[in-house]
């Protein structure tokens, strides 16, 4: 969806409220009819003409989205590791026990590779 400037979004909404057809408005701004519909839908849902507005829930602003997920994965010139879901807080101990030993060490074993975490100093893992 092409980005409309704020003043263009305001003009678009005003034209629609003034009775101009969606097709005519889309042609005027050189956008698709879907862009016009999405702009109108966002304005109706949030009361805002901003490009990425927040939804209003019970009169309070709420960011789009929800929960999050953390995964770990590794890549080398020789291949990649599987993605490993990380549940809860990842402590240094859990990182070693649940990621480094079961996933990293086997992946680099016998390949002559050196594991270096974000340019940290070299350490040997058993």
Q: Enumerate the strands of the largest sheet in spatial order, edge to edge or round the barrel.
A: 1-2
Given helix and strand content, the structural type is alpha+beta
Shape: elongated
Helix share bin: 40-55%
Mean pLDDT: 78
Calculate the terminal CA-CA distance, rounded to whole Å.
52 Å
GO molecular function, one term: DNA binding
Organism: Elysia marginata
Domain Resolvase HTH: 4-37
InterPro entries: Homeodomain-like_sf, Resolvase_HTH_dom, RNaseH_sf
What is this structure, in a nutshell?
This is Transposable element Tc1 transposase. With 126 residues, the chain is α+β, with helices and mostly antiparallel strands.
What does this structure look like?
Residues 4-37 form the Resolvase HTH domain. It holds the Pfam family HTH_7. It is a single chain. Helices cover 40% and strands 13% of the residues. The chain contains four helices and six strands; from the N terminus they run H-H-H-E-E-E-E-E-E-H. The protein has helices spanning 6-17, 22-29, 33-46, 92-108; strands at 55-57, 60-62, 70-72, 75-76, 79-80, 84-86. The strands form three sheets. A two-stranded antiparallel ribbon has the order 1-2. Helix 2 packs across helix 3 (33-46). The protein starts with 5 loop residues before the first helix and ends in an 18-residue tail after the last helix.
